[in-house]
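Entry 14. Structure prediction run on the chain below.
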Amino acid sequence: MHSKDGDVTKTAEYTYDYAVIRVVPRVERGEAINVGVIVSCPDVSFLDARIELDVPRLLALDDTLDVEGIQTNLATIPAICRGGAEAGPIGALPQRNRFHWLVSPRSTVIQPSPVHTGRTGDPAAALERLLNTMVRRPSGQGQRA
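Output returned:
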């Protein structure tokens, strides 16, 4: 981007933290699929999560899963990011505390990855890029000849 006098202007960049949300159908086996991403960028008061559950892929790991229960529990993650009464008592916490609560390690069917850090000028675009990289199947995958 150039200003009128030809100087290059920089877009502000911010540090963000993210974690990948995984579903681990049978914790004892350690198999998992990535189903979402949480991004926190305190400098611009951004906290959001996107969940995209690939049900056939999940059922390939364990066809006895309570998919509806997993979907219900996954839906609480974006609600907690938004905060407020919809998120229950955790929704009243400050934004950064909600992020830390969401990414705290647990040994349940729904687990966050370790937290990673990046830099971006647009946290929403970073969330979309992480979904494309970490959650969504690359085009053409899953199709057999």
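Residues 14 and 119 are 5 Å apart (CA to CA).
Filed with the rest of this week's runs.
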